[in-house]
TrEMBL record:
Molecular function (Gene Ontology), one example: kinase activity
SMART domains: HAMP (SM00304), HATPase_c (SM00387), HisKA (SM00388)
Compositionally skewed regions (Low complexity) per UniProt: 267-282
Gene3D superfamilies recorded: 1.10.287.130, 6.10.340.10, Histidine kinase-like ATPase, C-terminal domain (3.30.565.10)
Catalytic activity: ATP + protein L-histidine = ADP + protein N-phospho-L-histidine
Subcellular localization, as worded in the UniProt entry: Cell membrane
Protein name in UniProt: histidine kinase
InterPro entries: HAMP_dom, HATPase_C_sf, HATPase_dom, His_kinase_dom, HisK_dim/P_dom, HisK_dim/P_sf, Sensor_HK_Regulatory, Sig_transdc_His_kin-like_C
Upper classification of the organism: Bacteria, Bacillati, Actinomycetota, Actinomycetes, Kitasatosporales
TM annotation in the entry: 28-52
Residues covered by region (Disordered): 103-130, 265-304, 650-678
Signal peptide: none
Coiled-coil features, chain-numbered ranges: none
Keywords per UniProt: Kinase, Membrane, Phosphoprotein, Transferase, Transmembrane, Transmembrane helix, Two-component regulatory system
Length: 678
């Protein structure tokens, strides 16, 4: 026995090893976590992408709108500074701009002394430390100026073209030039050339050819050169500007230059004068070789035209312009633009800090998702682990135990079904063990009797007379009966029980069974009666197997009915209306019944069966008398065989009993179809 147990222990060691938990990557929890993390990551990424795209678009749109509004504010204030020598009276313009843009506009000196502020409340928030722009007509912010001028910026010239200073024409000069310009336009129109009069910031009109092709006017008699002749005030301002530029060049050891109306140096070129739209970047214009002497004669000796000299001349001309215009324009001022609450221009900067915040928020969402998945997965996997452990214990032959049922969900129902299966398996195991014990006991008794008689005859203690042989034959028949019963049950379980159905007259079959058991009933002092009437119900069945089933019921009833009792066999049809040739004795009279279910009842007036034992009467080897005495009971296979035989015929077997009054066993079989009328 020790060797066997040791071998069994060695066999169970790998089985216990199988109970080890699966690796996380192969477990349901691991897969659930992986799927949840993937879904969460994709959701976070998709949500973040959509949010970034939407927010970025909205912010860019808002920034564009704000930047356009700010550029308009800057351009308006820049125009004010270019046309006025001081900031006095700018308050009305600032308040108007604030109303139109819905934002706070403030101007201060470069020392942050307030000049004008649209927020006049005492509780107005302080200005931000950094200004939005510097309003200086002599040093223009080209980006804001380009936006404020609808894309028409100042190019490389940092001086606002509206800052004309001493080049501004008087009203009389402007009117005179306007009349001349109107005449030229009329002349061009008569020549079929569309043109308009455009008045610049200085008040000087000029003729603009529609189509921007001024060369078309050269072939006409409309001389436009009269409009390019500077007035007395312009010549005076140009001379002053030339003196300032010459002084700058002399400080650098360079020779002076002669400036043209368009502030270029060299021979005059037909381009705009200061303050007019067009190119105002100083550039050299070499004099043509065939020009008249009076036009080519410079007022001063021209320096050598080289790239280095040009850069120096351009720098000095720009410095001279700023110096000349400084007394005609307002001093530089700091411009502050923000919302009414004091905040500056809104923006969205994806800085490292913002990136870290976004990554942190995504990580938090992912962590919460994984945490929720772990919690839900643990609650889901815990009962599955319990089910797996219980199933493995059952496989190893340990005592099955029920698993806790957590709820009425799918897992809870699985646990409940497993508990039912475990309990059913435990009952089957107990029945199997009891069956093995009962089969051994049932076979041991006749074999022991046969062996005892044979050993007695061998020892000379018994004579092999007819009584001796009869006793051995009786034990052999009993042994054969048990073996036949077991074979019938095995065939029924395997579905191999062969039936030979044929029309059966139930009244006749009951009479045959009663006749076969009449002698035994008389010996037991029990009355055996059949109450089925002629012709009785008919059915299609195997008569041999049906007699076997009814005989087992009658034998069992006679055995458990005391002397003076009564066993009654009865047959009738149930489940159809009174329309056929079959009869029933319900209600004390004959009732004609149609085809339906044939019910065969065996009723006794014995001691009855306790209610707790009634569900087990058809179990194999079950006996009310646990001592298994041959005097009080049979092998315990008779009723089990009855149920299997009836089920093979497509019927059912049932039992009802009242303890102390008797029992009734009923076989319900499908009735044969009634014969057709001739």
């Amino acid at each position: 026995m020790r060797r066997t147990r040791g071998h069994g222990t060695r066999e169970q060691e790998p089985r216990r090893a199988d109970r080890a938990r699966l690796p996380l990557r192969r477990s349901l929890l691991g897969r659930l976590l992986a799927v949840s993390a993937l879904v969460a990551a994709c959701s976070v990424a998709a949500t973040a992408w959509i949010a970034v795209q939407t927010t970025s678009g909205a912010i860019k749109q808002e920034q564009g709108q704000n930047l356009t509004a700010d550029a308009r504010i800057y351009d308006t204030l820049l125009e004010y500074a270019a046309r006025n020598p001081t900031w006095e009276g700018v308050g009305a313009t600032v308040r108007k701009l604030a109303r139109e843009s819905g934002r706070r506009v403030a101007l201060t000196t470069q020392g942050r002394q307030p000049l004008a502020d649209s927020a006049t409340e005492p509780t107005a928030p302080a200005l931000p430390p950094q200004a939005s722009a510097v309003v200086d007509p002599l040093s223009v912010d080209t980006v804001l100026a380009a936006r404020g001028a609808d894309g028409q910026g100042t190019g490389a010239d940092r001086i606002d073209p509206r800052a004309v200073g001493p080049f501004r024409l008087s009203a009389a000069d402007s009117r005179a030039l306007r009349r001349t310009a109107d005449d030229k336009v009329a002349c061009l129109n008569r020549a079929g050339i569309a043109s308009d009069v455009v008045v610049g910031a200085s008040g000087r009109p000029r003729v603009q050819i529609v189509g921007n092709d001024p060369g078309r006017a050269l072939g006409t008699r409309c001389d436009l050169a009269a409009l390019d002749t500077p007035t007395r005030s312009e010549r005076k301002a140009l001379d002053a500007l030339s003196e300032l530029a010459d002084a700058c060049l002399k400080r650098q050891g360079r020779e002076g230059v002669r400036l043209n109306n368009d502030l270029s140096w060299g021979d005059p070129a037909p381009v705009a004068v200061p303050g007019e739209p067009g190119a105002v970047v100083p550039r050299p214009v070499p004099a043509p070789r065939d020009a008249p002497a009076e036009q080519a004669a410079p007022s001063v000796e021209m320096p050598e035209l080289t790239g280095e000299n040009d850069r120096a001349i351009a720098s000095c001309v720009g410095t001279a312009r700023s110096e000349q215009l400084s007394s005609y324009v307002a001093s530089p001022a700091l411009l502050f633009i923000g919302d009414e609450g004091g905040a500056t221009l809104p923006g969205f900067d994806l800085s490292p800090a913002n990136t870290a915040r976004i990554a942190g928020a995504a990580a938090l969402v992912l962590a919460l998702t994984v945490g929720a998945s772990v919690f839900a997965g643990a609650r889901l996997v815990r009962p599955l682990h319990a089910l797996t452990g219980a199933a493995q214990r059952m496989r190893d032959g340990e005592q099955p135990a029920s698993v806790p049922v957590s709820g009425d969900d799918e897992v809870g129902r699985l646990a409940a079904a497993f508990n039912d299966m475990s309990a059913h398996r435990a009952r089957l195991e107990e029945q199997r063990k009891a069956m093995v014990s009962d089969v051994a006991h049932e076979l041991r008794t006749p074999l022991s009797n046969i062996r005892g008689w044979l050993e007695a005859a061998q020892d000379g203690l018994a004579d092999p007379d007819p009584a001796f042989v009869s006793s051995l034959l009786e034990e052999a028949v009993l042994l054969q009966h048990i073996i036949d019963d077991l074979q019938d049950l095995a065939a029924a379980d395997a579905g191999a029980l062969r039936l030979h159905p044929e029309p059966v007259e139930v009244r006749e079959l009951l009479g045959q069974v009663a006749a076969a058991h009449q002698a035994r009933a008389e010996n037991a002092g029990v009355t055996l009666a059949v109450t089925a009437t002629a012709p009785g119900p008919a059915l299609s069945a195997d008569p041999v197997r049906l007699r076997q089933a009814v005989g087992n019921l009658v034998s069992n009833a006679v055995r458990h009915t005391p002397e003076g009792g009564r066993v009654t066999l009865r047959a009738y049809v149930a489940g159809r209306d009174a329309s056929g040739p079959y009869a029933s004795e319900e209600g004390g009279g004959t009732v004609v019944m149609g085809g339906g279910t044939v019910v065969i009842e065996v009723t006794d007036t014995g001691s009855g069966i306790p209610a707790d034992d009634l569900p087990h009467v058809f179990d194999r080897f079950w006996r009310a008398e646990k001592s298994r005495s041959r005097r009080t009971g049979g092998s315990g296979l008779g009723l089990a065989i009855v149920r299997k035989l009836v089920e093979a015929h497509g019927g059912t077997a049932e039992a009802t009993s009242t303890e102390g009054e008797g029992s009734t066993f009923a076989l319900r079989l499908p009735a044969a179809e009634p014969p057709s009328a001739p």
